[in-house]
């Protein structure tokens, strides 16, 4: 048991998660999946398509309680959990700013959001409605909403899919800037190795379904040094260590 006030990691120990298909066939999505994310760390869960990454996040978000095993959220189960999904899920009849403020606890509702909107390049878009935003801007609004809540843990499920590469890259860099300004324990699901190498402190490498941890890849390079040649080297180091992963 972690004493109150002491930094606690995210601990995951899922013994098994199965689904029953429409034809009555049992699909084992996860079996023996165990890992930790340290306090204040940005970790990526990297694995091939269909291996069980989203299933894992849904369990950690409390959206799926039918599994065997256990997990412990940072700070002994604080309620401040934020999530950014593939779809930004903004309320269409609310402005960007209202969407962000609605997510805040009463204590934070009136807080100054200027610097957060500024970092994310959203200062001029605060009073726009979601239908007036490009997909890239809507994703930024979803990031603003997540960080505004000052979460104990932030879960991200492939937040940069279906964007052109330039927009995705700009958003990845914005995510790093906002995370550096407001560090929080973060777990991001992706099947994009370069993305994981650009963003993560450590990568939790998963096997094909049922997802198990093949190993942990410690990126071990400061984020400012992760330019294209450095990323190329990291990709090659990664493939040497995990020739069969992703
Ligand atoms: N509600 C469900 N009913 C039946 N099978 C499911 C259900 N949800 C997920 N699955 C199956 O469980 C497995 C894991 O799915 P999951 O979405 O977690 O994978 P993923 O690693 O996130 O994939 P991707 O990277 O393509 O999003 C897949 O075989 C999927 O078809």
Automatic annotation (TrEMBL):
Gene3D superfamilies listed in its UniProt record: P-loop containing nucleotide triphosphate hydrolases
Ranges where the ABC transporter domain occurs: 10-233
Family annotation (SMART domains): AAA
One Pfam family this sequence matches: ABC_tran
Keywords: ATP-binding, Nucleotide-binding, Transport
Record-level Gene Ontology MF annotations: ATP binding
PROSITE patterns membership: ABC_TRANSPORTER_2
Entry similarity comment: Belongs to the ABC transporter superfamily.
Record-given protein name: ATP-binding cassette domain-containing protein
Source organism: Sinorhizobium chiapasense
High-level lineage: Bacteria, Pseudomonadati, Pseudomonadota, Alphaproteobacteria, Hyphomicrobiales
């Amino acid at each position: 048991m972690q004493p109150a006030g002491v930094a606690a990691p995210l601990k995951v120990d899922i013994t098994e998660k199965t689904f029953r298909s429409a034809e009555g066939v049992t699909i084992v999505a996860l079996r023996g999946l165990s890992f930790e994310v340290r306090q204040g760390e940005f970790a990526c869960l990297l694995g091939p398509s269909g291996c069980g990454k989203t299933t894992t996040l849904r369990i950690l978000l409390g959206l799926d309680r039918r599994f065997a095993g256990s997990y412990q959220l940072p700070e002994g189960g604080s309620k401040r959990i934020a999530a950014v999904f593939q779809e930004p899920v903004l309320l269409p009849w609310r402005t960007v700013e209202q969407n962000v403020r609605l997510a805040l606890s009463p204590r934070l509702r009136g807080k100054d959001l200027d610097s957060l909107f500024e970092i994310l390049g959203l200062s001029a878009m605060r009073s726009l409605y979601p239908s007036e935003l490009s997909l890239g801007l809507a994703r930024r609004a979803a990031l603003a909403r997540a960080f505004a809540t000052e979460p104990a843990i932030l879960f991200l499920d492939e937040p940069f899919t279906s964007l052109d590469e330039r927009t995705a890259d700009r958003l990845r860099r914005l995510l790093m800037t906002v995370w550096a300004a407001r560090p929080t324990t973060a777990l991001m699901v992706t099947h994009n190795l370069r993305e994981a190498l650009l963003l993560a402190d450590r990568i939790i490498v998963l096997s094909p379904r049922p997802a198990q941890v093949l190993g942990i890849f410690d990126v071990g390079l400061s984020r400012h040094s992760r330019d294209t040649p450095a990323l190329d080297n990291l990709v090659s180091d990664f493939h040497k260590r995990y020739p069969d992963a992703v």
